[in-house]
Design goal:
By secondary structure, the protein is α+β, with helices and mostly antiparallel strands. The protein has 2 domains: 202 residues, Immunoglobulin-like (Sandwich); 169 residues, no CATH class. 28% of the residues lie in helices and 33% in strands. The protein has 7 helices and 17 strands. The strands form 4 sheets. Strands 1-2-3-7-6 form a 5-stranded antiparallel sheet, with no helix packed on it. Helix 5 runs antiparallel to helix 6.
Length: 397
């Protein structure tokens, strides 16, 4: 059967159910299976420890199983507390180049004015699937994301709970949904999160984006017209202030602690694997390759914890210095050399719940690129920083 991906022949659903319920069933199946397979480690590993201490690595499997069990219980508690949430899209489908509005219905408690806002994210993902024998490796890579916060005062009440309004401008060049079921392709996901006493609210919905632009008010708003509080930027470790030579943008170290902790933990595991290869006498090519990758990972870890970037924009020039503990390099770029200052998704945690981190960079007329600051978690902050740098050196779009 042929599948029409144009969007015009396939009516978009007006009621989309959340994914948590299906995820709960899948999590319980995988968690039980993992723990059944790893449980024998408690029987077979202890007798081997005296003869081969490295056998202790076998305990990693039940440790992972315990973590899976905790995560599954939390997800189950979330589903039982908030019920079967759903997304009302009766106001119209999501189309490239238009403004999309919808309403999330969930069994949320009444939020007072002092409560935290509900954070809503719309993400475009590319799902890829690779198969190795009977194994299926599925990955979801973030291509585009926009996010906003819905204040408690904007959340309505219904007989079934809360009605959370959602509104996003879909870019005119947005990729249309092509993934069918759990297949490969492009998919769009709406995620809603809120910090609440007890179990936090967290739900996601698969949103089809189809058809051509409706010619509405969609598209990106001018980043220079947005109100970005410098205190908000400062809280993320980015300081913007005037200097004698122009505007100074300082990207401080340790700005993304959770990401740095994750990379550090991965590097520690990788280093442990390198030690195991060396101890067991692997052929020399394996520890050499692993060692080179380990050195690269160590550099990334040091840069995440201690690296600082300072950009001074003014008088038609950008002065860029990146340093670690005071040692680094400097570069001066003139406005005539720069074609544009743009954003780049430089790193991200995987999956639909992952976080993209943006890099502000100059694309030179020679074709080369120069980083002007990376690891910006908030897309609107990154867009505003790029716009301010362009404005400070007199560079037009």
């Amino acid at each position: 059967m042929a599948i029409d991906t144009s969007g015009d022949a396939l009516p978009a659903p007006t009621r989309i159910g959340g994914n948590t319920r299906a995820n709960v069933m899948g999590l319980w199946f995988f968690t039980v299976l993992w723990n059944l397979v790893s449980a024998p480690m408690f029987v077979f590993v202890p007798p081997e420890l005296e003869r081969q201490p490295l056998a202790a690595l076998g305990f990693l499997f039940p440790i992972v199983g315990a973590g899976l069990l905790v995560w599954t219980v939390i997800t189950t508690a979330r589903w039982r507390r908030f019920g079967n949430t759903w997304l009302d899209t009766s106001s119209g489908p999501a189309r490239p180049g238009s403004t999309w509005r919808a309403t999330i219905h969930a069994r949320l408690p009444q939020l007072d004015a002092d409560a935290g806002a509900v954070r809503v994210k719309l993400t475009c993902l590319r799902r890829t699937i690779s198969r190795h024998g009977d194994d299926r490796d599925e990955r979801e890579h973030i291509l585009w994301r926009e996010e906003t916060e819905v204040a408690p005062g904007r959340i309505g009440s219904t007989a079934d709970g809360a009605a959370i309004p959602v509104q996003f401008d879909i870019p005119s060049d947005a990729l249309q949904t092509t993934a069918v079921g759990r297949g490969e392709g492009i998919l769009w996901v709406l995620t809603a999160e809120a910090a609440l006493p007890g179990v936090n609210f967290k739900e996601d919905f698969d949103v089809p984006v189809r058809g051509s632009g409706a010619g509405g008010p969609g598209g990106s708003e001018d980043p220079q017209l947005r109100t970005i509080a410098l205190d908000d930027l400062a809280r993320t470790g980015i300081i913007v202030e005037p200097s004698p030579d122009g505007m100074r943008f300082t990207f401080a170290p340790m700005r993304n602690v959770s990401f740095a902790v994750g990379v550090t933990a991965f590097t520690a595991v990788w280093t442990g694997g390198l030690w195991v290869q060396w101890s067991l006498g692997f052929p020399w090519i394996f520890p050499i390759v692993a060692g080179l990758i380990d050195l690269l990972l160590l550099y990334v870890v040091i840069d995440l914890w201690l690296g600082t970037t300072v950009v001074v924009a003014g008088d038609g020039t950008l002065r860029v210095r990146h340093a670690v503990l005071g040692a680094g390099s400097s570069r001066t770029l003139t406005a005539a050399e720069i074609a544009t200052i743009e954003l780049h998704n430089s790193m991200q945690t995987q999956g639909r719940y992952g976080t993209p981190y943006y890099e502000v960079r100059a694309r030179l007329r020679s074709g080369r690129k120069a980083s002007l600051g990376s690891g910006v978690r908030n897309k609107r902050h990154a867009e505003w920083l790029a716009a301010q740098m362009r404005s400070s050196i007199g560079l037009k779009e």
